[in-house]
Automatic annotation (TrEMBL):
This is Probable membrane transporter protein. One of its GO terms (cellular component) is plasma membrane. PANTHER family: MEMBRANE TRANSPORTER PROTEIN YFCA-RELATED, TRANSMEMBRANE PROTEIN YFCA. The chain crosses the membrane at residues 43-61, 73-92, 98-119, 131-149, 155-172, 179-198, 228-247. Keywords: Cell membrane, Membrane, Transmembrane, Transmembrane helix, Transport. It comes from Thioclava atlantica. The keyword Transmembrane helix applies. It is found in: Cell membrane. It comes from the Bacteria.
Amino acid sequence: MEQILILVLAGLAAGALNAVAGGGTFISFPALVWTGVPPISANATATLAALPGYLSSAWAFRHELRHRGPMGMRAVLVAAVLGGFLGAMLLLATPQKLFAGVVPWLLLLATSVFAFGPALLKSLRRGGRSLSFPVAFALLLAVTIYGGYFNGGLGIMLLAAFGLIGFTDLHAMNGLKNLVSAVLSLVSVATYAAAGLIDWHAVLVLGLASATGGWLGAHLSKRITNIALLRAFILLVGLGMAVVFFLRG
């Protein structure tokens, strides 16, 4: 019952944070580890728990996805599928002990991107820069491989990548971000499930709680006036989780 309560609270918090400002993985992944789920399995389970939110968000932005950008939809989806599969295979090839050692660095990286991503996006939009197609595709593929390997901070990394590629419509970028996150998560989760990495009992509790938290967060977000304070709280959570994992070795 104690483990179920932890997962329910973590799912509610993660879903609400994702709905308002992102960063829910900083809550859901450590909660799974603390309830006894091995790190690699916890990563796979947290990705599956976040998938319904990605799908619903992508559907909400379906009209914005019609806007044309510097990279065609087919190329974006190819990068998502390929990156999700390669990232998942890389995770399967990583020994449990090695992944446990890499986790705090991944949390630190995701927290840093979450902190500086918005400023980077503003700078890119002002500069009006764009990349050649091969470089743009390689960049997007690298980010999706990261997403297939470790889901934390994926959203803001995708937004930064789209900004570098040359997208300027923020609504279209958000739609693409959600679509790419959903596609690569579907591919990576299918790979995780085939390898037996999903903790189905934990994902049921966490997924239902995350969906509820997302619904509550969407309504509460309309009443939140100080987004900067909320982002600061999420950053403190991310840094705190990274420190805890560093101390745990």
